[in-house]
Specification:
There is one protein chain. The chain is an all-alpha fold. Helix content is 86%, strand content 0%. Helix 3 packs antiparallel against helix 6 and helix 4 runs antiparallel to helix 5. The longest helix has 34 residues. It starts with a helix and ends with a helix.
Amino acid sequence: MQTNIGREITDLKNDLIEMGAFVENCVKDSFIALRDNDKSLLDSIISRDTKTDAMEKEIESRCLRLLVTLSPRARDFRFIAAVLKIITDLERIGDQTQNISEIQKFINDRFNAQVDLPVLSDMYKTVQEMLRLSMDAFVAEEPTLAYGIDEMDNKVDKGFLQVRENIINKIREGVEDPGVALDLLQIAKYVERIGDHAENISEWVIYAHTGSHPSLNNQLEK
């Protein structure tokens, strides 16, 4: 039989799972909209940011109430603290998809998918996998699923550098509109930032279940 704190933690977990799935769909759809030049989908993604913000506020309020009224200890406290951090990263990922979609509304008619899409496609696939694995680790309460996500983030970073190099070369060769080039570079940067937030989520999942935060440990070892 679940205690009161147990039931509250279960409800909190379910709320975070819902928010994670919602944000994952925003990331997936932002790539589909870019690939397919789907302006109605872009409008949908932009409008979803309001719901993402509302989810964050609702979960934050629940967390703070639990901390104040139930005085959770040890594992439950770490779990709630991690949720507070995770929702911040999820909300920021939502912001990134909104920003990407707003840029796409002006770039899609001038976008050469055959030339510009391949590296961005790989970056998108990787950040989606990072976010999926991070949330799977949270749902399954299995932090080992989150190990290795830092290496995936390194791949995304390299992808961004490749996009930047490609854009610079195309501008030099005069085969890319400078305005489109800058918009593409900004999109790539936002995708790279999504990877950073997905990595953050994985680290907080590890912390919630082990009490050890990878980034903090690395800083202490230096």
